[in-house]
Amino acid sequence: MNEEKNVNLTGQKLPVIKTEQLGKAYLLPDQQLLPVLNGIDFELKAGELVAIMGVSGVGKTTFLNILGGLDHPTEGRVYFEGQDLLAKSEAEMAELRNKKIGFVFQFIYLLPEFTAAENIAIPLIIAGLDKNQALSQARQALQEVGMDHRHDFRPAQLSGGEQQRIAVARALINEPKLLLADEPTGNLDWKTGETIIKLIAELHRRKGLSSIIVTHNEKIARFCQKSYLMESGQLKLFEGEEG
Ligand SMILES: Nc1ncnc2c1ncn2[C@@H]1O[C@H](COP(=O)(O)OP(=O)(O)OP(=O)(O)O)[C@@H](O)[C@H]1O
Ligand SMILES: [Mg+2]
């Protein structure tokens, strides 16, 4: 196999994520194909924070799920730090997701029967850390997202914004390289959403992440260095309105 290395011959850093001619069509129950993504060449460089916008149903979640190895493309290639994702086994993919990729979703999947601290500790326990150590790291992560005072609250006892803070802390607990956030503010009011985006942008900088935020909201996209618009299965750089 001819895998790229992290640094090429001229010493340039390779992108964290790269797609080549990525395509995705869903096979519907009536055997029709629903084309969604069509020949996407995309690159996320180390340290970049980018937004992906686009109307509902255009394929943003599909794209993010493929980048994070949660779904397979029907065409093209995906490289994570130069490694071909499609060449990995399910077990290798699960390990990469657990250690290198942090996910934040629109619908916050916290486990209801666990406390805030326990929810954050779960990825560490899955990665093999002892429970007490995992919980003590989770308490630190709670401080970073301004939620230590709620460490023993269960999700139902937290507001939507507070739950999303816990979800952000959980996404980052394994110190991933790549953060994928799918409409992290989608279910929050504008002001709460803005504080979540500011938190993500701050953690992005502080932890040296490479991050993609999917959002409907152009104001949210302004917190990112670059924005893309998804349209007709393609991604285009989006310049936004002047002024
Ligand atoms: N598992 C699936 N099987 C069949 N079609 C699917 C499946 N998942 C998504 N789709 C279709 O693919 C298209 C893109 O869906 P996707 O969820 O990626 O859109 P989106 O841009 O994230 O939309 P939204 O902004 O509403 O979240 C939609 O038309 C959807 O119906
Ligand atoms: Mg979506």
Describe the structure.
With 243 residues, the chain is α/β, with parallel strands linked by helices. The chain has a single domain, classed as P-loop containing nucleotide triphosphate hydrolases (Rossmann fold), CATH 3.40.50.300. The chain has helices spanning 60-67, 90-100, 116-126, 131-144, 160-172, 190-206, 218-221; strands at residues 17-27, 33-44, 49-53, 75-80, 83-84, 101-104, 178-182, 210-214, 226-231, 234-237. The strands form two sheets. The protein has a six-stranded mixed β-sheet. Strands 2-1-4-5 form a four-stranded antiparallel β-sheet, with helices on one face. A hairpin with a 5-residue loop joins strand 1 (17-27) and strand 2 (33-44). Bound molecules: adenosine-5'-triphosphate (ATP) and magnesium ion. Adenosine-5'-triphosphate is lined by residues 26, 28, 34, 36, 54, 56-62.
Strand content: 15-25%
- Please give the count of helices: 7
Helix and strand succession?
A: EEEHEEHEHHHEHEHEE
User: Class in CATH?
Assistant: Alpha Beta
Radius of gyration: 18 Å
Number of strands: 10
Give the N-terminus to C-terminus distance in angstroms. Answer: 49 Å
Shape, principal axes of CA atoms: globular
Q: Which cofactors or ions or other ligands sit in this model?
A: adenosine-5'-triphosphate, magnesium ion
The structural domain count equals: 1
